[in-house]
Amino acid sequence: MPVHLLRRLTSSDHTSLLGRLIRLPLKLVPSGWVVRIPTGLNRGRRWICGSSIQRCWFGTYEFEKQDFIARMVKPGMTVWDIGANVGFYTLALAQLVGPTGQVLAFEPLAANAAFLLRHLELNALTNVKVIQAALSDTADLLGFTATQNSSMGSLAGRDLPYLVPTLTPAAVLAALPAAIPQLLKVDIEGAEGAVLQAFRPILEQHSPDILLALHGPVQEEQCLRLLQDLGYSLFYLNGERVPAAGSLSSDEIFAMRRTSAR
Known about the structure:
This protein has 2 domains: about 60 residues, no CATH class; about 200 residues, Rossmann fold (3-Layer(aba) Sandwich), CATH 3.40.50. Helix 8 packs parallel to helix 10. The two termini are about 35 Å apart. The longest helix has 13 residues. By secondary structure, the protein is of the alpha/beta class. The strands form 3 sheets. A 7-stranded mixed β-sheet has the order 5-4-3-10-11-13-12, with helices on both faces.
């Protein structure tokens, strides 16, 4: 099936009768089946049906972000995948950095981490370290709220039934000194401001690039102010600069401190 048709039929806003009819049989695919992803950065990779939304195992999930990552990530790089979920981007990053690079994948939710590890095993990827913890500004045990959608979750107080360990970025780097990040891929629900603040010493010393998903105006304000204070230049994924003031036109941005052309 042509890639453009796969994109349309698996798009969340594609509601035509034809699209609904073609997608209907997909609901009958048993959870746990292993398929080959047909397109995108993960083309040919093995994926577990039911571990995530259909667009992941079709390879059509967030095509603009996939294209951006394909342009930015180079062999030999060290990438921290913060909010790795079940591993869609982890697989792609592991392939792009190659055997001379490495990926640190952070995922606090046990069910997601189990799928992530299984996806790495199915695809014989050995350049990824999975850390089943959340990154935060403190090392602690915090409650974690998770919705039925496995991509959604956030840290809260200790009065919740599900507790996850939190680590500071500095502690991770102290334990893994060879894992100085060149790129941070951050996609966490509503905690990105606190996490970037925890990264501040690493951002100041090592200046990693940052691919950042923002969730709401409070997080936008916190993150943009911090990044601008540190001298980062901010861009949308299409290459346009993020304006210094005003509302954002996209919740996905790229931040870099270096001014040299890529």
